[in-house]
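G.,

No rush on this.
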Amino acid sequence: MTEQQAGLADDILENGVAMTVPPGFSIDRREGHTDEYFLNMGPQHPSTHGVLRLMLRMDGENVLEVVPHLGYIHRGLEKIGENQTYLQNIHLTDRLDYLSSHMNNLALCLAIEKAMGIGVPERAEYIRVMVCELQRIQSHLLWWGVLGMDLGAITSFLYGFKEREMITDIFEEMCGARLTMNFFRPGGSFADVPDTFIPRVRAVIERMKTAIDEYDTLLTNNVIMHLRTKGIGVLSAKTALAHGCSGPVLRGSGVALDVRRSDPYSIYHRFSFDIPVGTVGDCFDRYKVRMEEMRQSLRILEAAAASFPGGPYRSKKYASYNLPAGSYYSQVETARGLLGVYIEADGGPKPHRIKYRSPSFANLSALNDLAVGHKLADLVPIIATLDVLIPDIDR
C-alpha cells in the first residue's frame, strides 16, 4: 500500500463512511467505542467572543479534544511596528487587547522610559494608575455582562453596561475615544485630565460599591449560575503555570501572582489592595476573582482620588525617541493578565524588532485541558471565564 493509500485508509470509518480527519486529530477505533465526529465551533460563533475557530472532536455531547485555529484577523502588528516610530507604535498597542488599551499603551511607554531614562511627574503617575484601574473595572463589566448573556441571563448585559457607560464617558472626555483609546505617552500623557475627572471618578466609586452587590444578587448567587460554573473547567495551579497563564485565570487556580504586586511599576507600591485567588480553579473561581478585583480596583481609585496631586502631567517631550542600541523589556498587569513588551533597538527612531507577550494567547492554550471530559454546552462558560480577546491573540 502506498503512503497516499494509507492516508486515505485513515479517513475511512469502520462503518464504511468516508470522513476527513483534520490535522492534529486521531480517530479512536477500539472495539465497542462509539463513532466520533468533528464539529466546527466558529469562527463566527457568538460565544467565542470574536473570530476564533475551535475544532472539536466529539463523542455525542462529550468533548474529547479541542484544537483552536487562529489567524482569521491576524494583522502583523509586530512586523508593522518595525516600520513605525516608537510614538507611532503606541497606537498599535491599543489594537491588541482593545479592552485594555490604556494598559497596553502604558506597557510600551514604560519600555521607552526605561531605555531613555525618562522620568514621570507625580501627577502623571496618579493619572496612569487611576486610568488603568478604571479600565480594569470597565473591562470586567463587559466580561460580566457578556458571561451572563452567554448563559442566558440577558438582563446582566444591560446591568453591566449601565455602569460601564459612566467609565466610558470619562475616557471619551479625556481622550476622545470609547474603545481603542490612546492617551499615555513617554513621560506621562499627551494631555492633562479635565477638571471633571476626579468628581466623575468619585461618582463611579460610589455607584460601583452598590452595583457590585446588585450583580451578586442578580448572577453570583443564582442557582443556575452555580450549576453551569462550579466544578466546570477545573484548571490546576501546576497546569496553569505550565501554560504560562496569568491574570484572573492563574489567580483563579490559587496562584497569587499579580505584576502590580510582584514587580511593581508606576506607583502601585503606594496603594494597599488584596490579590484575590481561588481554591478550586473552576469557572466559578475565575468568576469570583474578577468580581473581587473590581472591589480592589475601587480601593485603589478611592485612595488615589483622595491624594490626587497638582503639577505637570508630563515631563519633557522629545521630537523623536531614538532608543540606545540594546534590548528592553517591560510588563504590566492588564485586565486579562501579564502583557510583556520586548524591544530590540538599534539606536534609530524605529524598533529593529518589537515583540508582545499577550495574556490571551497563553490563557487560550489551556483550553483543551479545561474542556476535555465536559459537555459541548460547558465550553461556553469555560471560554467566557478565560476571557480571551481574539485581537490579543492574532497580533
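When you get to it, here's the other one too:
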Amino acid sequence: MKRHLISAADLSRDDAVLILDTAEEMARVADRPIKKLPTLRGRTVVNLFFEDSTRTRISFEAAAKRLSADVINFSAKGSSVSKGESLKDTALTLEAMGADAVVIRHHASGAPYRLANSGWIDGAVVNAGDGTHEHPTQALLDAFTMRRRLVGPDAGLGKDLSGRRITIVGDVLHSRVARSNVHLLTTLGAEVTLVAPPTLVPVGVESWPCEVSYDLDQVLPKSDAVMMLRVQRERMNAAFFPTEREYARRYGLDADRMAKMPEHAVVMHPGPMNRGMEITAEVADSVRCTAVEQVANGVSTRMAVLYLLLGGSEPAVATNHARTEENK
C-alpha cells in the first residue's frame, strides 16, 4: 500500500484485496471477550474532523483504540479553527504533538490531498470524506460487506467481486460515497450502474467506469446489491427534483421494488437514512438490508487500514507464544 489513503482510485486490486482480507482477520477479534490487539501501542492517531460525523468518527476512534493506539479527537467546533486558524497551522500543531496518523474529514474537496502532500506533517493521512469528492474507507467497508454477503467470509479470502452487478441509486451528484464506490468496485471486478434523476448525475459521468440508467425498475432484477444514497439536502442550493414524494415514487426503494431483486441480492445504505424518501422503513428494517452490518464492518475495515498504514510487518492478529510473552 501507499503511505496515505486519499482516494479509492489509488488502490490496486491487490491493495484492496489485502485490506479486505486483513479486515476479515480484524473482524474475528470483535468476537473475542477482549476486543483489543497491541499492534499500534505507542502510536498516536488524530481524528481531525471539520464536518459533523457520527458513524465515521466513532468508527475510526474504535478502530484505533482496538489496535491500542492513543487517540486524539479534534473537532473544528470549539477549537482554534473557529477563530480562523488555517489548515496549515492546525497540521503543524498536530505534527508538534507527534501524530503518527491523521484521519481528516473536511468540507473542501482536496483538503486531505493537500495535507498529505504539503510537508506539514510526517504521519500517514487517511481521507474520511472531503466535500463531494471521495470517502475511500466507506467504499472499502461497503466492498467488505458485499464480499461477505455475496461470496462468504471464509470463501471470500483472496477474492474480489468479479462478475457482481452493483447498482448505486440516488443523489450521485453530491455523493463522495458513490465516487469512491465506483472506483473501488470496478477495481475489484464488479459491474457498476448508477441510477439517478438527470439533475443528480454529475457532469462528466461518461468518463466514469460505470453505466448510467434513469429507470430503477429496469435495473433491479439484475442487481446483486443495491446501494441507496441519502439525498443530501444540506448541499443543495436549488430544486433538483419536483417534490420529495415524486422522488420517492421514482427512485425510492420500497417492498414492491425490493421484491423485483434476485433472492440473494442485498440492500445497502451508507447512512444516515432519510426513511420514507430514498428507502422505506419496511426495507430498512428487513433482513436483506445491511446498514447495521456496514457500521460494524466499518470498524474492522478501518482497523485494517490503520494497521496496514502504521503496523509495519508484524502479523495483524498474533496468536503465537512470542506475542503472548510480550503482553505479560
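The first helix runs from residue 13 to 29. The CA atoms of residues 188 and 228 lie 20 Å apart.

Enjoy the weekend,
O.
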